[in-house]
Amino acid sequence: MMSYEDQVSGIAAELEEVLDLDDLEAKVYLNLLRAGPITASALAKELDIDRARMYRTVDKLVSRNIISTTLSSPKLCIAADPHEALKITLGKKEDEVNKIKKSGEAIIEKINNEITTNQSSSVPTFRVVQGRQNIYADIAQMVEETKDVLYIVTTLDDVSRMYHSTIPEKITICEKNGGSVRLLVDMNDAKLTPFVKRFNATETRIGNLPSKGRLIVQKDKKMIMSDSASSFQHSSADSDFSLCTNSTEMVDNIFTLCKFLWETSNPLKTIDVKNFVKN
Q1: Residue ranges in the chain whose pLDDT is less than 50
Q2: Rounded distance, CA 226 to CA 220, Å?
Q3: Distance from the Cα of residue 26 to its chain's centroid
Q4: 138 and 239 part of one domain
Q5: Residue 50 domain-assigned?
Q6: Using CA atoms, how far apart are residues 243 and 129, in angstroms rounded to an integer?
Q7: How far apart are CA 95 and CA 113, in angstroms?
Q8: N or C: which end of the chain has fewer CB within 10 A?
Q9: 232 touches 240 (CB < 8 A)
């Protein structure tokens, strides 16, 4: 059975994605929800954090309306209601999207009218993508554009983070376009089956992965690869790196590997909770 500390750690990890917080900010917010009004100094002592760092974190959360402070002396920190915090975050994201869309359309029009472009699509490209949010955005785009088969081979923890991105929504679009998303994940506890199913992949299988990395490959198109996902749970979102390439040779090789892993894995629906044995 999962301990209270593990449950809190899991919730904190999800909060990082949903509310766009870093590890410390998520812990501060959760502890404020649990403890109620408390001084930043007392909270720093409870979390064993340097007071100066705690004050900076509190100021940042206050500026985003995630927490507020009283006018009393000493000041008390108060966490916003979770629903209100989510509403504030959604509003901020919607404003950012609208701004990007409006500015982007204007820029594209200028480029089309004033600049002659000469882009070659035959040369393989390689780029390193930094930041989990940027990586997930690339994956979401790949899924949306897929009209054939796309493999997602990764850890259970990575799947839990992807669930809170736009990727599950893009899977629906992919399927409407005639494509399919095959999710291959490592899992040693059959009780987590509903948790994996909610990701909504076209097909899902369980198997032993060759590494704790992340492989996403779109047939004949593009691939994204992360060397090691073993520290996803404990690392910051910004420390997540991936290689993205459309090199035909690399894409074909990784697609063949994923296809082999898929064929040697077990369909999710055939796993029996009572007879599930950890490998």
Answers
A1: 229-234, 270-279
A2: 19
A3: 15
A4: yes
A5: yes
A6: 6
A7: 27
A8: N
A9: yes
CA 98, 100, 104, 107 torsion-angle sign:
positive
Instruction: Calculate the dihedral angle through the C-alpha atoms of 80, 82, 87, 92, rounding to the nearest 10 degrees.
Output: 70
- pLDDT of amino acid 106: 86
Residues 135 and 264 in one domain: yes
Angle (nearest 5°) at CA 54 between 48 and 55: 150
The structure tokens listed for 115 are 């600049």
Both 148 and 262 in one domain: the answer is: yes
Q: Rounded to the nearest 5°, which phi and psi values hold at 146?
A: -70, 130
**Separation in Å, CA 41 to CA 29, 62, 123:** 15, 16, 56
Contact 254, 139 (CB under 8 A): no
Q: Which tokens belong to 61?
A: 């959360």
Question: What residues contact residue 69 under an 8 Å CB cut-off, 6+ apart?
Answer: 58, 62, 75, 76, 77, 78
Cβ atoms of residues 276 and 189 within 8 Å: yes
Domain C-terminal end among 79, 104, 134: 79
Query: In the structure encoding, which two tokens stand for residue 124, read together?
Result: 């393989």
d(CA 110, CA 6): 52
Give the model's pLDDT for residue 275. 43
Q: Beginning with the edge strand found earlier in the chain, give each strand of the sheet holding 126-130 in spatial order.
A: 126-130, 241-245, 222-226, 214-218, 149-154, 180-185, 203-206, 266-267
Token pair for residue 181? 């998303």
* Domain count across the chain: 2
